[in-house]
Amino acid sequence: MTISAAFSNALSGLTASGRASGVISDNIANALTPGYAKRSLELTSNATAGQGVRVLGVVRRTDPVLTDNRRSAEAMSLNADNLARFHADFGALIGPSDNPGALTNRVAELEASLITAASNPSAPSRLDATVNAAKDLAQSIRSAGTGLRDLRTRADRNIGQQVDNLNGTLQDIEALNARIRRVELSGANTASLLDQRQQLVDQVNTIIPVKIAARDHSRIALYSEGGAILLDGSAATLSFTTAASAEPHMTHANGLLSGLEINGMAIRTEGGSSPIRGSTLAANFQIRDELAVEAQQNLDALARDLIDRFADPAVDPTLAATDPGLFTDAGAAFLPANEVGLSNRLALNAVVDPSQGGDSWRLRDGLNAAGSGAQGDAALLKAMSAALTDPRTLASGNLGTGVMTAGGAATAMLSITSQATAETEQRASFASATFTEFQRIEQEIGVDTDAELQSLMQIEQAYAANARVLEVVGTLMDTLLRI
Asked: What DSSP designation does 315 have?
């Protein structure tokens, strides 16, 4: 080997070692950076010069199939988490059985207070306690209705925020696509831009699960797993209008709540054929338009059942057919056509509530009695107690087809909610475990800092060896020049 060949080999080796050490340093520094993909230096023999090595460039190492599976698992996990959280939150509103304020316990307290009052109807304290128990029950149902409305409103606002985030992120990806194309055509390295774009795609995936289609010059197109075009050349525009409050009577079907549009075209937001299926966006639509609506129907059915039980003239002969009973629709008689949102308006009849100017003795003598009667007469109190525990078929809702007492209806609602919570939490746990496993596998093929440090040591040795060759070549040249 000639001196010039040795010099050329060593110099190319030094250059390659320097570039490699920089690549490894970047790998180690960004090992935990979201979206960062491992880099490696691609080398080849320097065929042009006939000696040494030549750096072809820095290669970004990714596994598209694994990344796609990880994204699908993440979207599934987030979707399941949203649904599980809704059921858990609604379960907290109606209260678990070990909560003194639970609906089941409030019904039991009213039943017990009616029995206690009937045992001594002349005791004002017992009548007052019954009034308070009835008021607490109405308040618990009303609070659950208000909380359910808030959960529905939260879902509606989440949709609006997600749509805004999607529009901004898709536009950022469109801009990055154009920048990556320009940089690639200039011959410069695009790895950092690709990292940035992957991070943005991951953000889109947390809202709508996406599939990637490759385009020329390292550009990409994005499609939802349901087939909607989110980005292909230009970014799609999603449209949604957030409501100030998602009241019980407001639905997408009656036009009082907004649907979702992509480039001005309305799309389905529910069901397995929805373009946004399996997403957190779809979960929020499902909460707002299906789960919360069904929960509202059951809560309204429970409120209606309470009103109907005590508004019967057969229970209280002082009532006319159109008079409100012990429980009212915001102080008025209940009309079946106005059932939607009834739980949010349920109230105790003011005529029996001393705090509203009423008289608790009306529980004993009749809500519309002209005056106080025989203080030892417990007939009406017993009739009310019997009405509360009378097995009957509910006029509405989906709490069951059999006959139920008032307590049984509350228990049925608690059972349905608890079962839904357990099922969705189980699905969420499974989806989370799947996502965690894919994440672990993806990290394993990513940056291994131990391996990178070992490679860095080898590069240092190669650098030292090439430097030693240059030193020897320099010494030989000096010797030749002195001859």
From this structure: T
